[in-house]
Design goal:
With 323 residues, the protein is α/β, with parallel strands linked by helices. The protein is 21% helix and 22% strand. The strands form 3 sheets. Strands 1-14-13-2-3-4 form a 6-stranded mixed beta sheet. It has a 6-stranded mixed beta sheet with strand order 5-6-7-8-10-9, covered by helices on one side. α3 links the parallel β3 and β4. The longest helix has 14 residues. It comes from Luteolibacter ambystomatis.
Length: 323
């Protein structure tokens, strides 16, 4: 088997399966496949283009119905146009989620939206008999004093509640920041209450799962019946300024000064959400990878925010089933 086939096979290994809580009447029996990639960080790593191309090749190979990037994609500057064009070359539906780093460099959220051809910063769509909601966790709360905002403003929260009330379909939620991690979305408990309250007329749970990027970890947590699933970064785990993995190439460091503080992945990591109406399940597929250099564990890295066993260059199998 050649290297390309090995890569594609690894990229599409099954990672997690959950029964859906609600299947809409008349849903198509056709499986729905949505490729997902997140936290490529075009502006922070030297090989982002190659990583995105590998994702696109894999999605073309499996004939994905749609693709989605979950944020920290690229800044809206002319030098990144060719990178964005790689994603936009997909012939099917393609969806963007705004990440906090996508406005780095002094760019405004609206500039990023125009650069990516986003029509709205939060929105929803139907595909194959299912409902999908994309949220923007970059709102500024009252009294915000700087730094990266992580909040859903009142208008977005009201829209989310109304959108969930309108749909009769099983719903998947996508955001960059998580609704389950401490120090993430400031009003995440209020948002989770809305997700948990969304029921079908016979009282079944309407929200099937929530997916996010941002943390660069491999982790899943179920809260009151709803799985909150972290999609790992396509590129690396950032350890911070006290954890330099080694001496970076001086020329590379000029353009990518934070690269030496990353625990990098040798090959890109991404996944695919596959929804099977006939079986009443959805599957998140996974991919195993390798560290490019010493791992955080080998360096003695410790974090107060994440568990060390969540730090890995892969998306691994989750065996828990949700009733």
């Amino acid at each position: 088997m050649n290297t390309r086939r090995q890569f594609l096979k690894a990229a599409l290994a099954v990672s997690a399966t959950y029964p859906l809580p609600l299947l809409a009447a008349g849903s198509s029996a056709k499986k729905i496949r949505i490729g997902m990639i997140t936290d490529i960080h075009k502006d922070l790593v030297p090989d982002a283009d190659e990583r995105l191309k590998a994702f696109m090749a894999a999605m073309d190979q499996v004939k994905a119905d749609a693709i989605m990037q979950l944020g920290d994609f690229c800044q809206p500057k002319p030098a990144n146009r060719a990178f964005t064009d790689i994603f936009n070359a997909f012939t099917g539906p393609k969806y963007h989620v705004l990440g906090n780093h996508d406005m780095d460099g002094g760019f405004k959220r609206e500039q990023t939206m125009v650069f990516w051809s986003m029509q709205a910063r939060y929105y929803s769509f139907d595909l194959g008999g299912f409902h999908f909601i994309v949220l923007d966790g970059n709102d500024r709360p009252a009294g915000w004093k700087g730094g990266y905002p992580h909040y859903l403003a009142d208008d977005q929260v009201a829209w989310l509640k109304e959108d969930l009330e309108k749909t009769k379909l099983s719903t998947f939620i996508f955001s960059h920041q998580s609704f389950e991690r401490p120090m993430c979305i400031d009003n995440q408990e209020a948002v989770r209450a809305i997700l948990e309250a969304a029921k079908t007329p016979d009282g079944r749970r309407k929200v099937a799962a929530c997916f996010n990027g941002h943390w660069h970890i491999d982790h899943e947590r179920v809260i009151n019946g709803i799985p909150y699933i972290h999609v790992n970064s396509a590129s690396y785990y950032y350890m911070g300024g006290n954890w330099k993995k080694g001496k970076a190439d001086p020329e590379l460091a000029k353009t990518f000064p934070l690269y030496a503080y990353n625990a990098g992945y040798k090959k890109p990591i991404f996944t695919m959400l596959e929804i099977d109406p006939a079986a009443g399940t959805f599957t998140m597929r996974g991919m195993k990878g390798e560290w490019d250099g010493p791992s955080p564990q080998e360096l003695g890295y410790k974090s107060d925010e994440v568990e060390n066993d969540w730090l890995k260059p892969s998306i691994t199998e989750v065996k828990e089933r949700i009733s």
